[in-house]
Amino acid sequence: MTIFNRNDKAPDGSDIVTPPREMPAPPVTAETKRPVATAQPITSSVSSPSSGVSLISKALKITGQLESTEDIRIDGEIDGDVRGVSVTVGSNAKIKGTVYGDAVELSGTVNGKIEAKKVVLTSTARMSGDVIHQDIKIESGAFIDGHCRPEFGKAGPKPAAVYKPNAAAVKPADAEFEAKH
Predict the structure, then answer these.
(1) Residue 110 lies in a domain
(2) What is the pLDDT of residue 27?
(3) What domain range includes position 122?
(4) pLDDT tens-digit profile of 57-71?
């Protein structure tokens, strides 16, 4: 390490050049303990990038479809449909569209529809639209403006049965009215 001063001049006006001094290393003895670096796995609820989770941060706004063959965590805004294996919508996230997945956890806002095998609406969830599910959990405080339908994975809506009365057994209303009067 070297130290520089502005007034490193000899009395005769020439510059003094001093070679840099090296700090002597402390002697290593059996009593001196050096720190040892060890690698330990991090155990936290935050997923690492290598775990296969696609992250849409709060700084991003996406317009269009978002599809992934793995898990998705959304903290930003999406104007369009979202499709993933597991979709987690953070508390400040906003989605305008349909969210598809095997598992969907909503803590933010969805204006549209959710279609998933398993749906969890946390206490901060704001859902405006229908939830089509197989299994659902709704925490106290969640807001839903729509229908919850346990129809996920079924072959589509069943047609409404049309009642067709026997024509011979029913008299027209006008004929009955005329017979009484």
Answers:
(1) yes
(2) 61
(3) 55-149
(4) 999 999 999 999 999
